[in-house]
Automatic annotation (TrEMBL):
Gene3D superfamilies: 3.40.630.30
Organism: Haloferula rosea
GO molecular function, one term: acyltransferase activity, transferring groups other than amino-acyl groups
Location of the N-acetyltransferase domain: 16-170
Listed CDD domains: NAT_SF
InterPro entries assigned to the protein according to its UniProt record, in alphabetical order: Acyl_CoA_acyltransferase (IPR016181), GNAT_dom (IPR000182)
Residue stretches in coiled coil: none
Phylogenetic lineage: Bacteria, Pseudomonadati, Verrucomicrobiota, Verrucomicrobiia, Verrucomicrobiales
Signal sequence, renumbered to the chain: none
Membrane-crossing segments per the record: none
Protein name, entry field: GNAT family N-acetyltransferase
Length: 198
């Protein structure tokens, strides 16, 4: 297994594999998208897109460029369909120290710490290439996402249409002592030796 793939356990004890997606995962990504509920697809992509992910979207997501864009997935190898969540960062063209963060977890696997595991993973992968801030966006009705982002230390701003969140990747002090914040801090500590250079 390469340095950019690792095994860990969810809080419930389930062993999972975490690794970057590649072009070989094209079919699996399309299937994972199909398995999302209509509401989850809308909350992630902000449009009512149906069950089929278009070829252009698949191309865009899977065109990995570790310096500027990466997508990581959490896989449960005991399942017929192993993918249970994925997250990405996209470096800003205007500010090379900032990147957009996004995360999706299958409906039946939410609230199991998968999003926090993915945030910690892409946090460290992005930090490794010089990114120092994450920006995330969500719709105001997505109350659970808003609570999770705040509980993991993101600062929130309302622009009249969407909620904008910002994490400082080079400063762990703002991570609050909430259950989600403590879980994030623990994951960052666990994964730093795996994902950051010596």
């Amino acid at each position: 297994m390469s340095i950019d793939a690792f095994r860990t356990d969810l809080a419930c004890g389930l062993p999972v594999t975490v690794r970057p997606l590649t072009q070989r995962d094209r079919g699996a990504l399309a299937e994972g998208y199909r398995r999302l509920s209509p509401d989850s697809r809308y909350q992630r992509f902000w449009v009512h897109t149906g069950e089929v992910m278009g070829e252009k979207m698949l191309d865009r997501i899977l065109r990995q460029d570790p310096e500027n864009h990466a997508v990581w997935a959490v896989l449960d190898p005991t399942r017929e369909f192993p993918g249970i969540g994925a997250a990405s960062f996209w470096r800003s063209e205007n500010d090379p120290e900032e990147a957009e963060f996004s995360c999706t977890v299958l409906d039946g696997d939410q609230r199991r710490g998968i999003g926090t595991l993915l945030l910690a993973t892409v946090w460290l992968a992005a930090f490794r290439v010089g990114i120092r801030r994450f920006t995330g966006y969500t719709m105001p009705e997505n109350v659970s996402a808003i609570r999770w982002m705040r509980d993991t230390g993101a600062e929130a701003e309302w622009d009249g249409y969407k909620v904008i969140f910002r994490w400082r990747l080079d400063d762990l002090q703002p991570i609050p002592a909430t259950p989600a914040g403590a879980a994030l801090a623990e994951r960052l500590s666990e994964l730093a030796p795996k994902l950051l250079p010596d």
